[in-house]
């Protein structure tokens, strides 16, 4: 059963409040990602922490010991212990995604999904990021994917708006013009 988006968002908002108040958002984000990765690699640890047959206090003590070894931020530690105490630790991935979304929202950063036929160079990526920032008036975080079907050019999706500058679209428009003539 998946954690509802609204519950994940509620947890994420509270964590963003703490992270921004302490100016620890970058560290907390990295630590949550590392902990999620640890759980994916260490199945035994994940199984113990998610085992409802073990009393919560025992699982909390196990988690506390694991976290002490990592010397993580107090905000991260408290949040992970809170999730465990509410038996929500298995939903860390959803909460982590909501945390990143809420953090971007608070910092005025928008995400742009960018599809290109070929890998863009670093200067090309930076130029695209700056153009999109100028268009939107906000900081832009780019998420790239290679899609050979677009032949060339770029397709950018920001929210529900799509900017299609692909060769595939240009050919489609040319075909429509020629068919209409």
In short:
By secondary structure, the chain is an alpha+beta fold.
What does this structure look like?
- Helices cover 62% and strands 15% of the residues.
- The chain is of the alpha+beta class and 181 residues long.
- The protein folds into two domains: 5-105, N-terminal domain of the delta subunit of the F1F0-ATP synthase (Peroxidase, domain 1, Orthogonal Bundle), CATH 1.10.520; 110-180, no CATH class.
- Helix 2 (25-41) runs antiparallel to helix 6 and helix 4 (56-70) packs antiparallel against helix 5 (74-85).
What is the average of the pLDDT values? 91
- The quaternary organization reads as single chain
Radius of gyration: 22 Å
The structural class is alpha+beta
Describe how the helices and strands are arranged.
Elements: H1 5-21, H2 25-41, H3 43-49, H4 56-70, H5 74-85, H6 92-106, E1 109-116, H7 122-136, E2 139-146, E3 153-158, E4 161-166, H8 167-180
Parallel strand pairs: 1-2
Antiparallel strand pairs: 1-3, 3-4
Helix pairs in contact: 1-6, 2-6, 4-5
List keywords for this structure.
181 residues; alpha+beta; Peroxidase, domain 1; four-stranded mixed sheet; 8 helices; 4 strands; elongated
């Amino acid at each position: 059963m998946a954690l509802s988006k609204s519950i994940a968002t509620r947890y994420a908002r509270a964590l963003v409040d703490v992270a921004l108040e302490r100016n620890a958002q970058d560290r907390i984000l990295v630590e949550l990602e590392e902990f999620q990765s640890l759980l994916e690699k260490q199945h035994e640890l994940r199984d113990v922490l998610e085992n409802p047959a073990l009393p919560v206090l025992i699982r909390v003590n196990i988690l506390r010991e694991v976290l002490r070894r990592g010397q993580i931020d107090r905000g991260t530690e408290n949040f992970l212990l809170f999730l465990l105490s509410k038996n929500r630790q298995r939903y860390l991935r959803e909460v982590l995604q909501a945390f990143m979304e809420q953090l971007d929202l608070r910092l005025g950063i928008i995400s742009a999904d960018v599809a290109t036929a070929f890998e863009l160079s670093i200067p090309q990526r930076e130029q695209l990021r700056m153009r999109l920032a100028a268009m939107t008036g906000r900081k832009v975080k780019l998420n790239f994917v290679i899609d050979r079907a677009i032949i060339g050019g770029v397709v950018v999706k920001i929210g529900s708006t799509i900017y299609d500058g692909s060769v595939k679209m240009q050919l489609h428009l040319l075909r429509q013009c020629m068919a209409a003539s």
